[in-house]
């Protein structure tokens, strides 16, 4: 991509060559057509591509450029692509000619080289005008190029933006000068990133449930030999808890796209909370049925266990605390029902009527089995959050999880982007 595209009339070639040489001296890449080629489709396609792939466009004003049909077409193309245009004056036109300029050019500040000021001073003013908001202009140019490529390839999902590139595009959703295609490109890229994010949230959630339950089954069996029966129970218990903790992990961060698009904004968070609680309760109901031979029904213990399993995630849904706080909350709230309602717990035994949540032979097992089980579940199911926290959460992540407005938004903008 070029830094600058220059539109000019042939009569101003000597002046323009001096400008181009000055740009080259400071290391700027310039797109300019010095060949006197007759107007044609292929030539015009190159002009359009040059405009699209340049960050800033310079329009050289003179009586001849104002009268030039080609220059008028180039300016129209710049405006259509929402390019930043910097007009410079090579030869000052008369007032009766200026009215033929597009209004957008008339309203801009001109850098007038047709004065007694030294060329070098005027060129410095031109560079200053170009460099103002140049980063934003380059990002907009990159978005334009990527959108054109994506459109030409029939909207291929392989060409959607991701990672650092997507992070630079996301703030542009607030701009009012984006074309429909550019806005669709960003939104589809964001949806694809959200789908990948939800997938990995589920994977880590599944892993957390698998690790926690596998540890319980393997240790609680008290068998020094890994038998097929133990392996079967580990897999079964891990899959049950993995499935539901995966669901909780996804819904606590954000709704899947198909629900997000269909539900009013006011009910999205309540739906997230309800799904987390229901999934947590179902996990313990099936666990009790599988290991304690309790009928498939809601019990006091499974209700409390479901609240505990989901509560740390629900806090994350509502408050978005840092990842390490989410991990600690998940571990503590998952462990408390295990601590209170295990078969060896004095509190459970004092109830006298409720089914236990989980079976332990000894009160000490709540620390040697229950606590590591809760920690493994919390680490695994929040693994993605912890990794992102250690790597530095980026702007894409905040969009993916439905970022709330905070006072440190400016700090978030400065975080180093990572892949989503």
Low-confidence residue ranges: 403-420
- Which strand-content bin applies to the residues? 5-15%
The geometry reads as rod-shaped
Helix count, DSSP H or I runs of 4 or more residues:
20
SSE pattern: EHEHEHHEHHEHHHHHHHHHHHHHH
In what order do the strands lie side by side in the largest sheet? 2-1-3-4-5
Looking at how many chains there are and whether they match, the oligomeric state comes to single chain
Helix content: 55-70%
Q: What is the overall pLDDT average?
A: 83
Distance between the termini: 25 Å
Structural class by secondary-structure content? mainly alpha
Radius of gyration: 32 Å
Q: How many beta strands in the DSSP annotation?
A: 5
Largest sheet: 5 strands, parallel
Give a written overview of the molecule.
The chain contains 20 helices and 5 strands. By secondary structure, the protein is mainly α. About 40% of the residues are buried.
List the helices and strands and how they pair.
Layout: E1 2-7, H1 13-25, E2 30-31, H2 41-52, E3 54-61, H3 63-67, H4 69-80, E4 84-89, H5 95-98, H6 103-106, E5 111-112, H7 119-131, H8 134-152, H9 163-169, H10 180-220, H11 228-253, H12 257-260, H13 265-292, H14 300-319, H15 323-341, H16 346-351, H17 365-381, H18 383-391, H19 395-400, H20 409-413
Parallel strand pairs: 1-2, 1-3, 3-4, 4-5
Helix pairs in contact: 10-11, 10-17, 11-13, 11-14, 13-14, 14-15, 15-17
């Amino acid at each position: 991509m070029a830094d600058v595209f220059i539109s000019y009339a042939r009569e101003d070639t000597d002046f323009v060559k001096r400008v181009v040489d000055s740009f080259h001296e400071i290391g700027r890449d310039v797109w300019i057509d010095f060949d006197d080629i007759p107007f044609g489709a292929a030539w015009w396609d190159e002009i359009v591509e040059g405009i699209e792939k340049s960050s800033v466009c310079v329009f050289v004003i003179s009586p001849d450029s104002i009268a030039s049909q080609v220059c008028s077409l180039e300016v129209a193309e710049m405006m259509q692509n929402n390019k930043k245009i910097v007009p410079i004056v090579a030869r000052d036109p008369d007032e009766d000619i200026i009215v033929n300029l597009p209004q957008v050019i008339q309203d801009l500040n001109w850098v007038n080289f047709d004065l007694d000021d030294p060329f070098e001073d005027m060129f410095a003013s031109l560079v200053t005008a170009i460099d103002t908001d140049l980063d934003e202009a380059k990002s907009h140019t990159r978005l334009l190029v990527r959108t054109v490529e994506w459109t030409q390839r029939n909207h291929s999902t392989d060409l959607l933006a991701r990672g650092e590139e997507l992070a630079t595009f996301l703030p542009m959703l607030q701009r009012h000068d984006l074309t429909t295609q550019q806005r669709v490109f960003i939104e589809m890229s964001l949806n694809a990133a959200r789908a990948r994010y939800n997938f990995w949230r589920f994977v880590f959630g599944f892993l957390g449930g698998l690790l926690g339950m596998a540890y319980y089954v393997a240790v609680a069996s008290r068998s020094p030999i890994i038998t097929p029966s133990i392996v079967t129970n580990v897999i079964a218990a891990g899959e049950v808890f993995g499935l539901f903790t995966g669901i909780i992990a996804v819904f606590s961060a954000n709704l899947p796209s198909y629900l997000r698009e269909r539900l009013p904004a006011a009910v999205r968070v309540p739906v997230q909370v309800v799904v987390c609680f229901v999934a947590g309760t179902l996990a313990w109901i099936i666990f009790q049925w599988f290991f304690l031979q309790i009928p498939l029904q809601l019990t006091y213990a499974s209700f409390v266990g479901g609240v505990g399993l989901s509560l740390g995630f629900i806090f994350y849904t509502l408050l978005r605390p840092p990842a390490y706080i989410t991990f600690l909350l998940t571990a503590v709230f998952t462990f408390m029902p295990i601590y209170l309602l295990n078969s060896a717990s004095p509190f459970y035994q004092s109830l006298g009527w409720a089914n236990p949540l989980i079976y332990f032979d000894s009160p000490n097992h709540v620390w040697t089995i229950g606590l590591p089980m809760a920690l493994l579940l919390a680490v695994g199911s929040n693994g993605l959050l912890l990794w992102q926290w250690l790597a530095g959460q980026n702007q894409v992540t905040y969009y993916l999880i439905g970022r709330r407005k905070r006072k440190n938004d400016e700090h978030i903008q400065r975080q180093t982007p990572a892949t989503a």
